[in-house]
Amino acid sequence: MAETQGKVITCRAAVAWGPKEPLVIQEICVDPPQEMEVRVKILYTSICHTDLGTWTGVNEAERAFPRILGHEAVGVVESVGEGVKDVKEGDYVIPAFNGECGECRVCKKEVSNLCERYKVDPMKRLMVNDGGTRFSTTTNKDGGLSQSQRIYHFLNTSTFTEYTVLDSACVVKIDPNAPLKQMSLLSCGVSTGVGAAWNTAKVKEGTTTAVFGLGSVGLAVAEGARARGASRIIGVDANASKFEKGKVMGVTDFINPKDLTKPVHERIRELTRGGVDYSFECTGNVDVLREAFLSTHAGWGSTVLVGIYATPRTLPLHPMELFDGRKITGSVFGGFKPKSQLPSFAQQCMKGVVKLEPFITNELPFEKINDAFQLLRDGKSLRCLLQIAKFLKK
Ligand code: NAD
Ligand code: ZN
Ligand code: ZN
């Protein structure tokens, strides 16, 4: 039994104190897990664009500081609260920002992964058990002593810390022999992209696909489409350097909108005799979404929204445009039900059905987390992996 079980743990975390303010690595207190909660020692974490979006505070309603961001990680269970049966101390786990209680009406149906109790909620900042936080400060952001202040949770997970507390519905046990660094990617980016291709669009062999935005999420869509035998995968990005990476994930053609004198969808329709079978919007830009929608073939084309749209603007479509027979739908966490489906997806990745290594473009120590944010902001990384804890496998 862990020596720390039932006790408050004092450890280091990267705390966000305000929009666009550099994260502060400081000492914090992490309370023990309550009923149906799990305390996890984080081994590796990586940064997704959704962390960046929340940190910049672009959507004012979602702002909550001080806060511990981060939702892509892999860790080991330190202790569990009362009632937790499916994981125990020492298990290797990944956090799931979109949880699965297993008992609600949605969890019992196959069609949706949006659990009624633990689906992703960008507004949520407190634990459901008692409406409190499990994190608190020991020092102020300048390192001086201050009265303890609560630190908010983020996206059911909060992984930029040595220890975090999650609802057990948001903890997925993985094979202890899995390559741990790569498992961090399954917490969000790769599962989201591959799942959008496999579960939401259901990409079929010999079909054509366009992916808008070649970050980790978009390239995971490409990798998923490649694995399903798509014959042509057109990548669209304003950053030309993304094409080199994209080739490894099966991107066959590249379009930089800056090089065109016509809308991207016209170019795609020219290249594909009227449009692609599937398009995926992975930039979070509403104007790009319109291009993605119009780039599919009339009659059967299908567009999947994956990006997060901070803007108050609504869908950029005239209702009559839907009479052309193009479909449009959204995808959260790639449609995966985390607890019931991620372990087998992880196995498929370990067998090489989906290649994970190319997504880790940088590795840095935890202290350099602000540099890792900058790499993503500058379009210079796909995923930068941060090592948080040193550990030895038993
Ligand atoms: P990223 O920053 O690594 O990649 C975004 C890419 O889009 C970059 O390569 C950038 O150059 C490109 N881009 C941006 N604006 C563009 C434009 N106007 N035209 C062409 N290219 C453009 O981000 P990521 O981590 O891959 O995440 C992608 C999106 O997916 C984000 O909006 C993120 O919040 C969202 N997301 C959604 C889910 C979900 O469950 N639906 C999960 C994870 C991430
Ligand atoms: Zn994410
Ligand atoms: Zn549920």
Q: Could you characterize the architecture of this molecule?
A:
- Strands 3, 4, 5, 8, 9, 16 and 17 form a seven-stranded mixed beta sheet that branches. Strands 12-11-10-13-14-15 form a six-stranded parallel beta sheet, with helices on both faces.
- With 394 residues, the protein is of the alpha/beta class.
- The chain has ten helices and 17 strands.
- It has two domains: 9-187 and 355-387, Medium-chain alcohol dehydrogenases, catalytic domain (Quinone Oxidoreductase, Chain A, domain 1); 192-333, Rossmann fold (3-Layer(aba) Sandwich).
- Helices cover 22% and strands 22% of the residues.
- Nicotinamide-adenine-dinucleotide (NAD) binds at residues 48-50, 53, 188-189, 192, 213-218, 236-239, 242, 257, 282-285, 288, 306-308, 331-333, 376, 379.
